[in-house]
Amino acid sequence: MKRIFKEGTREKGFAKERFEFGIRSFWFAILFFIASFVNLSELAAQQDDKLLQLQEGAIVKATQKVSPSIVQIQAFGGLEAVGEVVVGTAPTTGIVVSPDGYLLSSLFSFVQMPSSITVTLPDGQMKVAKIVARDHARMLILLKVEVEEPLLVPEFVDRNELQVGQTVIALGKTFSPKTANLSVGILSAKERIYGKAIQTDAKISPVNYGGPLIDLYGRVTGVLVPLSPQPAGAVEGVAGAQWYDSGIGFAVPVTDILPHLEKMKKGEDLYPGKIGLNLKGKNLYVDTAEVTSVIPNSPAAKAGFKPKDKIIRAGGITIERQAQFHHVLGKLYGGETLELTYLREGKESQVTVTLAEKLLPYRFPFLGVLAGNEPTDQSESGLQIRYLFPDSPAEKAGLAAEDRIHTIAKEPVNSWDEAIAILATHSVGEKVTIEVATKGERSVKEVTLASLPTTIKTEIPPWSFEATDLPEVEKEIETGFLEAKLGDEKNGAFLYVPKNYHPAVSHGLIVHLLSPADRHESATLTPEKLLEKRRALSKKWRPYCEERNWILLAIEPTDHRGWGPTEGDVIQKIVQRQLGRYTIDPARTLLYGEGASGAMAYMTGFAQRSWCRGIIAIEAELPMSRAVLQNDPIERLAIYYGAHKKTEETASVLAGLAKQFFPITEKEFSRQKRGNEKVTDAEFDEIAQWIDALGRF
Question: Which strand (E) or helix (H) includes residue 142?
Answer without folding.
Answer: strand 140-144
